[in-house]
């Protein structure tokens, strides 16, 4: 069953094919300031439902990842990165991480949270 989410003002809306079963809390400098919890998906399981021009993108450093946020209200909505589950960047297997706090009518409290040490591991 698909689950929809949106930013605060509703200008940026998205959908994932299935509800998340696990959350990730990263403590890197960007994620800790952004304050979101994320769930990871294959790009084919993610769909942006609104016009791409409603979305702004932030990149830094080596530009391997893209963090997207609503151009109107500023809520961080989703990010795109290569898969790092092996410890190395796998550009052939990209992933989309969504801000689970933006899912509509979704209770995230019972889900397990993986704590990622992005501050020291990257």
UniProtKB/TrEMBL annotation:
Pfam families: GFA. It comes from Caulobacter flavus. The keyword Zinc applies. Gene3D superfamilies: 2.170.150.70. Keywords: Metal-binding, Zinc. Belongs to the Gfa family. This is Aldehyde-activating protein. SUPFAM superfamilies: Mss4-like. The keyword Metal-binding applies. It comes from the Bacteria. One of its GO terms (molecular function) is metal ion binding. Residues 3-122 form the CENP-V/GFA domain. InterPro entries: CENP-V-like (IPR052355), CENP-V/GFA (IPR006913), Mss4-like_sf (IPR011057). PANTHER family: CENP-V_GFA DOMAIN-CONTAINING PROTEIN, CENTROMERE PROTEIN V.
